[in-house]
Structure formats: C-alpha cells, structure tokens
Amino acid sequence: MRKFLAASAVSALMVFSAGATMAQEEITANTVLATVNGTDITLGHVIVLRQQLPQEYQNLPDDVLFEGIVNQLIEQTLLADYVAANVADIPLEVELSLDNEKRALFAAVQIEAVAGRDISDEALQAAYDGQYGNLPAEPEFNASHILVETEEEAEALIVALNGGADFAGLAKEKSTGPSGPNGGELGWFGLGQMVEPFEAAVVEMEVGAISAPVQTQFGWHVLKLNDKRDKPAPTLEETSASLMDSLRQQAVEAEITALAEGAQITRPPEDFDASLMRDISLLSQ
Q: Which residues pair with 4 in a beta bridge?
C-alpha cells in the first residue's frame, strides 16, 4: 500500500481535531470522519478498508492504523475527484475493473447469505448417514518388524524367533530400521499406508504369527502381527464441521443452478480464440 503510514499533507482535513470527542452511542458506520471537497469519508469506509488490509497492517496499533487508513482514503478521494472532474475519458480498463469488482462483491454477498443459512440437525444427520452410514469396515493392523539387509539374515531371525527368542529384543539388537529401538513396533496402520509387499504380507497373517522374509526397497523384513481390528467410522461430532462445509457448498451450488435455470445465458462460440484474453492492447483501442 503506497506510503500507507506516511504523514499526509491533507491529514488536516480530518473532521475530528485532537481535542474533539463524540459519545460512543452516537457513533455509527455512517459517522463522518473526514470530508474532501464535500465528499464524506465515514467510519464504515475505514472499517471496510481495514478488513481488506494484509495481516501485517492489521496487527499495527489502532491509533497508528486509524490515522493511516483515514489519510489513505483522503488521498484516494483527492485523486479520484480530480480524475472525475478533469479526465474526459475514463480508461476502459478502469470501467471494466469497476464492473468486475461490483459483480464480485454482489456475488460474495449472496454466497455469504446462502452459506449462512441455518442447517438443521436433521439435514446434518442425513448427510452423515449418507456418507458414513453404510461405510464398509476398513481393517487396521498393529504390527512390528525387524529390518535387515539380506534374506539370509531374515531367515536366521525367523529360526531364532521360532526357537523362542524375544521379537522386541531382536528388533532392538538387529533391526536397521528407525523402529528398531522401539522393539520394531509400527503401531496401528490401515490399507495403503505401507508399501505393497509389506501390506500384502500383513493382510494374510494371523494375529501373533511371524512372517516369512518380505523384501521391499528398504531391505528384508520379518513381520509380527500384534493385532488387527475394523477401523471405526468417525462420529457425527468428529465430522460435523466438514459436513457443514459440504452442505453449505451444496446450498450455494443449488442457488447458482436455480438462478441459471431461470436466466437467459449466452456463451462465447466454441471456436472463439481464447488467446485473445492475453491481448492487453485491446483495452487501448
């Protein structure tokens, strides 16, 4: 923002002098803070501009930010009034930008209104049931492994384990993987979270079983399946935020669809040259 916090030569135009005060109950968004050649700058203008500032400005002290915003609006009003009074032809780019800004702001107002409508508990429950009610059970596995470099090392580990050796002890002693110091424990994981040969072996195992050597890009694994279970579906409470967002988005899409069905819309011909949108020179013709 151009010289946003610089001292402004026109700051004296502010209506409120250093000693002026106003009762809090008298202040509204229409309260005039400054005038420039008869054009009012209100508290509402300041509030809106503050909301649009980057976060780095919004974190400034209120008194500093307030003065900077008022000065900015005064300067902009001076320049805008000059253009309106002295420039015969407003650049086409400016007019088109204003059209786009107005269109975007009006659209945002309606989107906010539609998305802000209350969503009933029944609608939320129906959305939950539709997404999670018939969700098929997904298996989860709790496994440990010992990672070594060769198949021969893996075979020797299996012999030791079948002879009664402690899996966690061997993992701490022999495993080259990061889980070795933790006894090889990998915790709970679902399908798709492990590399394919590893996952395929785990899926076929019984709880408590020790696998044959399994090769992956990391080396050779000896696996132990500690436990398995069906992953529980998330609760309504856990999913309500995302479901509400989805319902709001659906409401906005339904609103747009309904408006489009009642409107007369024409679109560019299919053979229109899309690259013309890059031709800035057209704005100056």
A: none
CATH architecture of residue range(s) 138-231: Roll (3.10)
Q: What is the pLDDT at residue 17?
A: 41
Q: How far apart are CA 140 and CA 14, in angstroms?
A: 67
User: What is the rounded average pLDDT of the residues 208-218?
Assistant: 96
pLDDT confidence band for 209 (50 / 70 / 90): very high
Whether pTM exceeds 0.85: no
Tokens of 49: 């501009």
CA distance 179 to 170: 12
**What are residue 188's DSSP bridge partners?**
142
Instruction: Report domain extents, the chain.
Output: 1-88, 90-135, 138-231
Would you say 225 and 205 are in contact if contact means Cβ atoms under 8 Å apart? yes
Strand partners, 145: 223
Question: CA 30, CA 230: separation in Å to the nearest integer?
Answer: 60
Measured between alpha carbons, how far apart are the two ends of the chain, in Å?
A: 30
pLDDT value, residue 244: 96
Q: What is the 3-state secondary structure (H, E, C) of the chain?
A: CCCCCCCCCCHHHECCCCCCCCCHHHCCCCCEEEEECCEEEEHHHHHHHHHHCCHHHHCCCHHHHHHHHHHHHHHHHHHHHHHHHHCCCCCHHHHHHHHHHHHHHHHHHHHHHHHCCCCCHHHHHHHHHHHHHCCCCEEEEEEEEEEECCHHHHHHHHHHHHCCCCHHHHHHHHCCCCCHHHCCEEEEEECCCCCHHHHHHHHHCCCCCECCCEEECCEEEEEEEEEEEEECCCCHHHHHHHHHHHHHHHHHHHHHHHHHHCCCCCCCCCCCCHHHHHCHHHHHC
